[in-house]
Design brief:
Largest sheet: 12 strands, antiparallel
Radius of gyration: 24 Å
Number of domains: 2
Order of helices and strands: HEHEEEEEEEEEEEEEEEEE
Helix content: under 10%
Structural class: mainly beta
CATH topology of the largest domain: Jelly Rolls
CATH class of the largest domain: Mainly Beta
Strand content: 35-45%
Shape: elongated
Distance between the termini: 22 Å
């Protein structure tokens, strides 16, 4: 929980001696809760306010302000569809980057973007979930714009193909469905080779297990990467 988060919204009685902690809660303005679970638990018990129309709350897990309309909690304003979960800078001359703490139960589906930075040569980029090295099934198409070649590709193996890297840039955009749920993880990706090879790709598939993942690794097929940023966004569930 953050520094302002509380687990109760107290109600005081006449003549009660208030402590510093009591006053800190009272003076905090809109009460801040870690999750909707702690919000709901903070009302109605002995010594707590009864939940009533007009009550406000701020939820840390989703960065939203809510109000109670007398029958249900409603969000104030428009919640963003995508929420940045984590941003990780790629180091210098590395062949792989592990991103931990990327997935949780807060969101069902995620967007991962990789932009900026360079590769030491023209390389393919691959994504592995956790330590799983089997069960990746996917198919896709590619266009080689330097020669107008169109092709197809399929795979079943140790990782997902996600994009490309060159001495000009790294490029990949990935959507993962249910990586932290006890379901198969679905996968879509696209990327562009900014080097002399000139490929653009689009892939989709799934990982054939029900493991609940929190981390992933992006790696090169050869050579290494320098710079660039991997950003992980959660899609709001509602």
């Amino acid at each position: 929980m953050g520094a302002n988060a509380v687990t109760t919204v107290p109600v005081y009685t006449a003549g009660e001696v208030l402590t510093a902690a009591d006053l800190n809660i009272t003076n905090s303005g809109i009460p801040v809760f870690a999750t909707t679970v702690t919000r709901d638990a903070a009302f109605g018990s002995a010594g707590e306010k009864t939940l009533a129309e007009g009550q406000f709350a701020y939820i840390e897990a989703t960065n939203t302000t809510q109000y109670y309309d007398g029958s249900a909690w409603q969000s104030v304003g428009v919640s963003p569809g995508l929420v940045l979960v984590k941003a990780q800078t790629i180091g210098s001359a590395v062949s792989s980057v592990e991103v931990t703490g990327a997935f949780s139960s807060t969101y069902d589906n995620y967007l991962i973007s990789l932009e900026g930075g360079v590769a030491s040569t023209n390389v393919g980029l691959r994504l592995t979930l956790g330590a799983t090295a089997t069960g990746y099934l996917f198919a896709g198409t590619f266009v080689q714009y330097t020669s107008s070649t169109v092709g197809g590709q399929f795979g079943g193996g140790t990782n997902f193909e996600i994009g490309y890297g060159s001495t000009n840039a790294l490029s990949a955009e990935i959507v993962l469905g249910s990586p932290n749920l006890a379901k198969v993880t679905t996968f879509r990706s696209r990327g562009a080779d900014t080097g002399t090879t000139g490929y653009m790709n689009s892939y989709s598939g799934f990982l054939n297990n029900t493991t609940q993942y929190t981390a992933f690794t992006i790696a090169t097929t050869t050579g290494n990467m320098t710079g660039g940023t991997i950003r992980v966004y959660g899609y709001q569930n509602s």
